[in-house]
Amino acid sequence: MNQFTLKSKQIPLNSSFDVIVVGGGPAGCTAAAAAAREGVRTLLIEATGSLGGMGTSGLVPAWCPFSDKQKMVYRGLAATVFETLKAQMPHVRKDALDWVPIEPEKLKRVYDNLVTEAGAKVLFLTSLADVERDEEGNVTAIVVLNKSGLQAFQAKVFVDCTGDGDVAAWAGAEYEKGDAETGELQPATHCFILGNVDDYAYINGVNLHAENPSSPIHEVFESGQYPGIPDKHICNNMVAPGSVGFNAGHLWGVDNTDTFSVSDAMIEGRKMAADYRDMLAKVQPAAFANAFVMTTGTLIGTRESRRIIGDYVLTAQDYMERKSFEDEICRNSYFLDIHGTKAEQQRGKGSNLALTLYGPGDSHGIPYRCLTPRGLRNVLVAGRSISCDRQVLGSVRVMPVCLAMGEAAGLAAALAAREANNDVHAVNVATLRRRLQEEGAYLPEISEIMQEVNAGE
């Protein structure tokens, strides 16, 4: 690519914050709330006009499970977000913990309140443009772009919740992305909502999910009569009366760090949403004959991007062993949900580990060291870009665990911001874990976990 040299220029500098969180998805929201809760001056920077990421702008229609099939394992601020939204959705059972629908507009307000009531400041419609660092691995400033032009921000600690590890990667952190041999990434999905759905017919009609052998999606795909339907993936939930959200179909070859790639995918995704509406109106007319595409996501549903290399790399083997760590900052029980190649998905399976499920009560720990990028002193990472291998990414990338990781990252950032050198690697993990426990996080002592495992045997 040809290069263009920018003219040197002075831009406004804001140094009034102790902690800056970049990215207002689930991890970013809980990170900002947790940092501000500790009394440090906190700014949350978000590229879109609302908080929530995949659950709001991305229109993912349901939460992945909050339980390990026995109890809620994503607690603290994660539980606050989950229960606050659920209380505003009267069609959802009060005791529901798994695959609970999301009404995106209500969730936006939940996140607004969570962050602002904790005392954090929010800056919307602002994109990261550059990252400056020194020789010691300190990010000295970030440059952002919004309608006010280019601006620089300095802080003691930065929390990268961009989902793509932009802050860490642009600061020079090591990272991996995609398959080690081919570079292939998990496919994306462009979620959408159909409105004017007949509630009674939808609720009492055939389950559309591909796990149901009687779902019409099998015949639809295998008939070849609907070329706009790429595979059998068709998760769906009633997100509000008359409104059904869809996480359906796949878009292969999408790289969320390549804006041209994402732009092409969004155009194709909107076309795909219309194709799904037309197909459902024909095969399930009682529910969908009068339905219309109410909205499509303003974010593409990205499942995989950069994985920042940290002080520890979580592995699929750790997952299989239900491993615990002395520095773990949350527990995770979601299965290895890996969306595979086009050929694999069209055959109806993602990968050999895609259906690896834990038993009731099973979970594994995520160590704090997965949030601390090697080579950077004052940067933490939370969300799908934490330090992990590609297989276990299929488990830790989803919203409930991102909420839990974000709270830990924000609290750790506040602790580091109070120290002279702001070194996130030197945070007292015992203090971090104790504060998380005081705020309601599910963080049993290692001995307690082993007792549960032994009792289960």
From TrEMBL:
InterPro entries found in the cross-reference section: FAD/NAD-bd_sf, HdrA-like
Keywords for this protein: 4Fe-4S, Iron, Iron-sulfur, Metal-binding, Oxidoreductase
PANTHER family: COB--COM HETERODISULFIDE REDUCTASE IRON-SULFUR SUBUNIT A (PTHR43498:SF1), FERREDOXIN:COB-COM HETERODISULFIDE REDUCTASE SUBUNIT A (PTHR43498)
The name this protein goes by in its record: Pyridine nucleotide-disulfide oxidoreductase
Source species: Paenibacillus glycanilyticus
